[in-house]
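Summary of Year 1 activities. Much of the first year was spent building the evaluation harness for sequence design. The harness presents a backbone, in tokenized form, and records the residue chosen at every position. We chose the following record to illustrate the format because it has been used consistently in internal testing since the harness was completed.
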């Protein structure tokens, strides 16, 4: 369970920091904003929801592991980190909105954890 908490904190840290950076740069990313708000409400003791967030990133990272490692995520067809039908964000769009090194560093770290 401890590794799940660390993984969840890495995910939450990345999403919330990316959302904050998008806001500061006047880059609108509604899906990311909703995802960040949801993460901020998840108690660390809610194993089910934490596992669902980890699974969402696991699916995204599994589909894009090689592209993340090679810095070629912009060519991905699997663009969404999807928690549910109503809650997702386009992770590839972050490359347009933020510093690519920031995005790749965090995604590579998360990919190694999931």
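For this record, the design step produced the sequence shown next.
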């Amino acid at each position: 369970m401890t590794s799940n908490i660390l993984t969840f904190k890495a995910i939450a840290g990345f999403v919330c920091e990316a959302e904050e950076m998008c806001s500061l740069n006047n880059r609108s990313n509604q899906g990311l904003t909703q995802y960040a708000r949801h993460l901020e409400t998840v108690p660390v003791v809610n194993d089910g929801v934490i596992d669902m967030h980890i699974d969402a990133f696991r699916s995204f990272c599994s589909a894009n592991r090689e592209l993340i490692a090679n810095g070629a995520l912009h060519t991905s067809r699997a663009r969404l980190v999807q928690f549910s039908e109503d809650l997702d964000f386009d992770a590839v769009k972050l490359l347009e909105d933020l510093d690519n090194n920031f995005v790749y560093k965090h995604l590579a770290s998360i990919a190694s954890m999931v």
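The chain has one domain: 2-113. Quantitative recovery figures across the full test set are reported in Table 2.
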